Amino acid sequence: MTKSLVFFLVAVLYWSMGQKTPQDPIRYFRKQTINRPIAGVKARTVSLEEEMPNDSLFQHLSADGVPVYYTREVKTAVCFDNKCRQLVITLFWNPTGRYLGFELPENEFLSKKDHDPFTDKEYQRLNELLADPDLPLGKITFNELVLTSTPLKGELDGVSGATSENLLQYVIEGAAYTTYKLYTILYGPTQQLVRDWTMQCWGKEFMLEVIRSNNLYDVFWGLENVKGKLKEYPRLQEQVLDMIRSENYSLSEKAIHALEPKDLENITVQLKLLESLNGLDFGRKKRILELFGETSQLFPETVEQFNSRISDMEIPLKVLILEIFKEHEVVDGTTLHTVNGLAHSGNPYISRKAKEYLAWSGNKKE
Amino acid sequence: MLTRIGVLSLGMAMPGLSQGEILKKPYKIRFRTMETDILVVGGGTAGAIAAIQAGRAGQKVTLLECQSQLGGTTTTAGVAFPGIFHAWGKQVISGIGWEIVQEAVALNGDTLPDFSMPHGRQHWRHQIRLNGQLYSMLLEQKCIDAGVEIRYYETPTQITFRNDHWLVETVGKGIHVQIRCRQIIDCSGNAIAASIAGFDLIREKETQPGTLMFTLEGYDMEKLDLNLIRSAYNDAVSRGELVRSEFRGDIVALLKTKGDNIQHIKGADSTTSESHTQANIMGRTSLYKHLKFLKKLPGCENIRIADMRTEVGVRETYRIDGLYRVTREDYVTGRVFKDAVSYSYYPIDLHTEHGVTPRHLAEGVVATVPLRSLIPKNSKNFIVAGRCLSSDRLANSALRVQASCMGMGQAAAAATILANQQNISPGEVDMDDLRKLLEQHGGIVPKS
To answer: Is ipTM over 0.90?
Structure first.
């Protein structure tokens, strides 16, 4: 065997490793939130895209009826520059609406211009692109994609985002329309259908799994959707209260926003929230205190805590606590004493606010 | 007889008054004097926050605003999209600005973006979409609550320093006021008060363009033949009917953004009534011409203006010649000054006639604003906040944004409060005292 033949065979082997052959089943997947075996499948007819009328969205369920994932079998023509290719692919959604993956039927593969098959690297890249919910692809129309083959001058700022040059980095080279088509199906109306269908199967165990997920997208979705229901589900509520102390700012902020005033109609919740104030910044503390103002009841232990901590609070929060006292008609002796101290503050603004409270409490007693 | 003639002539001069009508005396400019601790000039992004801060610290505050509402670029100019308050997963600008942004978001039923995900090249993902009108109302309410005297439609005409006090002459509708105050915070954006007071200002030969914010509707982007529109646009530009730079040479972007922060009005200057009038006319004329052009194109026959702000927003005019000039190098390396009073986080974002290409900060970098950059050279009892701080052009292109201006506004006010209390100038305040005061009011101060 000559050296050049060996080189040729190695090159062929290397090339074949980099390509998915048509025989291999191709499947790329992200991490699921719910990991349970599929025990049943339900289908709903959807007519969301003109070229795919009466298509089906499948809900894949576990034995206990929890949605594990959703699928759509996409069959559509990808046409660009008057050339068409058939696109046959199964798309997967997590129950939270997040992109989960894609799978090609046996002997099917994705191709680029001139029918060149995708390489492994391109499949991986596609999987990554489709997993990013913020790609500019979701904000452009097909005619913009076509147009953007002509470079534009400069770049837009603000919300306007991408230009043609930018768009190239968000598509697989030679398969711009395939990328765009898949992206728009994944993040189009189907995504909301998936979320809506999941919400119809709402269960506390499922939501607990979602908000305990390692994926922040799922957690944020979960927090949005447990809002208003926490009072009935103490375990969920406990989880959300714990999240408030997270070092991740947005996680903490969204956990606070998952709370409603009625969730504070419980002494444990009020005390836990007061405890969590310690590590928080001004903005988050303020939102928590506002909840105390909006809830129907302030427990004596809470009033006690407010009185002992008000002097260490930021000035706008001191004023907010005075408003909370007024809102809940707190006029006990300790509070009056505390506020009387504030009325003698060297800061005329605080002093004025404290005097306003004292005047109000005087009228209240009369 | 004479008496009778007199009565007759008077009767002839008097108009016939119906019941309930009174005769208005000839228009006369009223003059009044007043005294305040701190005068804030300009109720925009930085000024409203500065006024609230000073009021909450118990100072007597007067706020001059030449327009009819607070908020400036965020409200009057319509860029209701402030940012950036968070950098690299942490909040870097908080305090009064953040408090009101947060309240506006909650009151409008909106949610905050996910700040835990890096924004990559799309920094606007961390900016916050606000209801501008609501934000303006909240600013006004907070000013009233803090005891700030708001004076709309007034502008300073003369500023002199005498006996450790400033004497500021202002004019407004039907009024001429002389205000005696101890400190001035210039938040005019154009350093107008600094200029009137006689401090040096710096300006680029060519400033960044301004933008009229508007919203177009009445067309379906998916159904437009964009190649045809682009070709027709290029022809119109060649014929001299449209000016290419006014929409960055990109008619498709105008249609796509529907007018959101896309127009560029060359030389837009808000420093005088005449220059601002000119900028507004240019902004509206440009929109009018483009609207008429688009209306003739297939798919755009029903295009219309859904909303338009009352004035062109201005990015750049004058900057003070301060005790320190923040450079691009300072900004992009995240230099933490010993006298840093607030953070600033935004890409270097210089708009030119060719568009804008933001230069993002390297991972982990957050710039800071030194107190010295807010103080004009040779000044006493005078400080600025907002985009007119002392900085080179590129640093300014990042420092000028709304969140940074809010942080500066609060910090500048804190410095004047301490200066007033200790009978010193803002540049002489102790940094520990300043930090303590700002933190008591929810602010974030960089640690050097």
So the answer is: no
